[in-house]
Amino acid sequence: MTSTAPHAPPPAQPDRDLIVRVRDLRKQYDVHEKDPGFLGSLRAFVRRQTRTVHAVRGVSFDLHAGEVIGFLGPNGAGKTTTLKMLSGLLHPSGGEVRVGGFEPRRRQTAFLRTITLVMGQKQQLLWDLPALDSFRVNQAVYEIPDDQFHATMREFDDVLNLGPILRKQVRKLSLGERMKCELAAALLHRPKVLFLDEPTIGLDVNMQHNVREFIRAYNERERATVILTSHYMADVTALARRILIIDGGAIRHDGDLADLTARGTGRKTIKLQLTRPITAEALAPYGDVIRADGLDAELSVPRADVSARAAALLGALEVADLTVEDPPIEDVIGQLFGHPEGTQP
Ligand SMILES: Nc1ncnc2c1ncn2[C@@H]1O[C@H](COP(=O)(O)OP(=O)(O)OP(=O)(O)O)[C@@H](O)[C@H]1O
Q1: Is the dihedral of CA 139, 140, 145, 150 positive or negative?
Q2: Which of 19, 91, 139, 164 could form a disulfide with 225 if both were Cys (CB 3.0 to 4.6 A apart)?
Q3: How far apart are CA 336 and CA 258, in angstroms?
Q4: Which residues, by range, are in coiled-coil regions (predicted)?
């Protein structure tokens, strides 16, 4: 008789696709406070008063290769502080972070080659020199071989049309031109993890679109992992499937964009185009009037009543076009977290 020894369970496979692992991450700042004026300064000099600001309070999440997440929250929610800890610029007060297997705070060379941090409100390009000089500096810093440098420049130029602006002094570039160069400079070393903090801030709609398309193409080509914060929901809805919402330093939602919209306000928006001008009063019986500008109107109605209200509108008015949409994501987020103005500053 033969006996078969029970098979040992196979060893757990490491999750090779796990790129960012954050556990119970915390950051607090000790802020010195003083009352205004000379007396306040004197008092603070004699007895220093300190207050602790809990900017990030126990945040946990995982990100896999190629994933793009929208990292949203109202002003002061803790987004920038989290991104700075992920990129090693700030040391956490507690918890764990791993990015590409590295501990960011150690800022090892291999880690710095893996990541990039773009802050729309801060510039990295040398102000008095042409952008091309900053690109050359980055080439030297990251030890990018010449052929790779030229190939990357050609590829970025195809999408961003950098040619005409590379030799102009950075201080003379428009905001949009500068942002294109900032992004290209930040991605020259082909990082696998992108921390993008408001990359489209202040740009006009066209330029926002260009920057978005550039990020999308880069993400697809490199299978890069992207964390994106933006006050422009169009950036988020165009690029991210998954949304992380932070408020008061803690994660309030981590899931699909679609789930968030469904969880939303319980209402839908009916958009109307009419053949005759109409007033808000005349539309009021059909729902909450958001807008009534002559031939265009928008109504907010409960989700459950959409069909009945749409049928009533089509029956009673001369409607050229009628569409039903989810409310803007800003409204959904604003309502969920008690910031009625959404995440707009
Ligand atoms: N160096 C600092 N010293 C003291 N408090 C700080 C410091 N940096 C940030 N904070 C505070 O920490 C909290 C989180 O700030 P953080 O910049 O991370 O928010 P945010 O979500 O990026 O906001 P915004 O959308 O306005 O940029 C805020 O209350 C902010 O005032």
Answers
A1: positive
A2: 19
A3: 15
A4: none
Q: 98 to each of 66, 200, 312, how far by Cα in Å?
A: 16, 27, 56
Q: Which helix (H) or strand (E) holds 63?
A: strand 49-64
Tokens of 193: 């993890």
Residues 6 or more apart whose Cβ sits within 8 Å of residue 234:
208, 212
Write out pLDDT tens, residues 162-220. 988 999 999 999 988 999 999 999 999 999 999 999 998 888 888 888 889 999 999 99
Asked if 155 and 218 count as a contact pair (C-beta separation under 8 A), the reply is no
Q: Which residue has the tokens 């309502």?
A: 335
Rounded CA-CA distance 60/82 in Å is 11
ipTM: 0.97
Residue nearest to atom 12 of ligand 1 (CA): 55
**C-alpha of residue 81 to centroid of ligand 1, in Å:** 6
Question: pTM for this structure?
Answer: 0.80
How far away, in angstroms, is 57 Cα from ligand 1 center?
A: 13
